[in-house]
Amino acid sequence: AACAEGAMAGPRALLTKEPAPQTVPVAQLPMKVAEVALNTGPYSSCGLATAGFRTAKYLPHEWHEHHHGLTLEAAVGCDQAERCCLEARGLARSTAAAAQRAQQDSTAALGQRLQDIHFWKAELQKEIEDLDSETGLLGAQKVRLERALDATEVPYAIATDNLLCRERRQHPDLVRDQVEIELLKEAELIRNIQELLKRTLMQAVNQMRLNRDQKEVCEMDWSDKVETYNIDEKCGRYNNQSTNIQFHPGSVKFEESASTPETWSKFSHDNIYRAEREKMASINLRALIDSILHDVSEDLRMQSAAVNEAFAKRCEELEDAKHKLEFYLKNTLKEIGDQEANIAALKQAIKDKETPMKVAQTRLYDRSFRPNVELCRDPAQFR
Fold first, then answer.
1. Which class is 117-234+263-333 in CATH?
2. What is a single Pfam family found in this protein's UniProt entry (predicted)?
3. What are the domain boundaries of the chain?
4. Mind listing the pLDDT tens digit for each residue in 45-54?
């Protein structure tokens, strides 16, 4: 009946002080001093035998007063008890309503908390997936850098081998020509490219390590969010009819290391911010690697074209010089042959002049025997 009355009655204000005790104070009888009634009338008895019956007794009006006081005190006590019961019922109803409202507010707060946890959990999961994907893409770029670095070994070996081979040229052709200049440029370019690729490769390795570290931080935060979400979801399902609820006296204290909602959200926000920063750094590094590989490829291609052009020009010069030398060699050999034939002809001509020489010398010799004046220097002598 009290519960039905409490359900029908409206909520009452909470008491601000402790209600009066529910007991009726014990009424103390007034002390009665024994008096010996003096009877001086004609019917008085002065015998000692009747004196004991009048000792410590009340008069009728005193008894009525005492009885009236007891009933009055009992009525007041009953009235106070009734008021206390009414106040207790009102207090029970108000505390029950307050407890129900507090439980509803707590359930609603848990629901809002679950939404917040789910939001940050989803954001962290997205960042974890993005970081994992970005780390994989950066790993692919790292492989490209390693392959590009390995690919520079062959051109560098070719350039250095060409320089060493050209050192074996003979003295007239051992010249610092355009080919050697371009080969030295190519070797220097390849060395610079190798250093650049090594630095970029080290930067990619460091960025991948930073991505994994930040991913691990986000995963730890995400794992805590998942565990907290499960705990709060279980707490949100608790109600007055739950069978697995019990008293936990020490659960109402606040931990000194507990975070506030602001620091809690800031912690996840900072983790996501750092993850976004590392992700953007990784994206920029991948773009830089693409640009470096493209520029390196173009530089090597241009330098290779310059070396090939220098070789082609030098080969043309050598071919032209070779043709000229062959032409002059042919002419020289022809002239040598002609001169040899001329020499042979001259020798034959000289040989052919031996007989006329003999004739002339014989004539001169024989004419030297002319006598006296006949030994004249006549025209025949000078012929």
1. mainly alpha
2. Tektin
3. 117-234+263-333, 340-382
4. 444 454 555 5
